[in-house]
Write a structure and sequence with these properties.
There is one protein chain. By secondary structure, the protein is an all-alpha fold. It has one domain. Helices cover 73% and strands 0% of the residues. The protein has helices at 2-24, 32-42, 48-68, 72-90, 103-118, 125-129, 137-156. Helix 3 (48-68) packs across helix 4 and helix 5 (103-118) packs antiparallel against helix 7 (137-156).
């Protein structure tokens, strides 16, 4: 089971981090910070450079922490937050990805919640440093992540 959680953490974490890298750099097929700013502007968000930097930085940070299995519930909350915003952006297009719907970000939200609930497994930095999340932290991370994403949408969307 620990190997399965490791694979899940690393793949999901690196995909989320890569998504953030695309928002703020030309790497991995991104259009740089100006492209990230334009994307958020086209999606109806205010904040310009600050919005793109915070979103991209949150994805990079939470993704790398998830991949490493470090501060896992907090990392999962960050990932759930940014991907919840993505769900709200794409919801009007329906569920399925072939219509640019919210299927993919929803899967990432759910997988981050699963990692918050299961923990990082024994093959993680949390285990290596002796961090054991208290039982209440996983549900709090899920509420904070999804709630934070919904609040971000409400505050920053025009």
């Amino acid at each position: 089971m620990n190997t399965g959680i490791l694979v899940l953490r690393v793949v999901i974490g690196l995909l989320i981090a890569g998504h953030g890298i695309q928002k703020v750099t030309p790497w991995l097929g991104g259009e740089g910070l100006s492209g990230g700013v334009e994307e958020f502007k086209n999606d109806g968000f205010r904040g310009g450079v600050a919005t793109a930097l915070v979103a991209g930085g949150s994805q990079i940070g939470s993704g790398l922490l998830l991949a490493a299995g470090l501060l896992t519930p907090i990392a999962a909350a960050g990932a759930m937050g940014v991907m919840t915003v993505a769900v709200t952006v794409k919801r009007h297009k329906g569920l399925w990805a072939q219509n640019d719907g919210y299927e993919y970000p929803l899967v990432l939200v759910v997988l981050a919640a699963v990692l918050a609930l299961t923990g990082p497994g024994s093959l993680s930095l949390d285990t290596a440093v002796g961090f054991a999340a208290p039982g209440w932290l996983a549900p709090a991370a899920i509420i904070a992540g999804v709630g934070g994403g919904l609040m971000t949408r409400a505050v920053l969307h025009r």
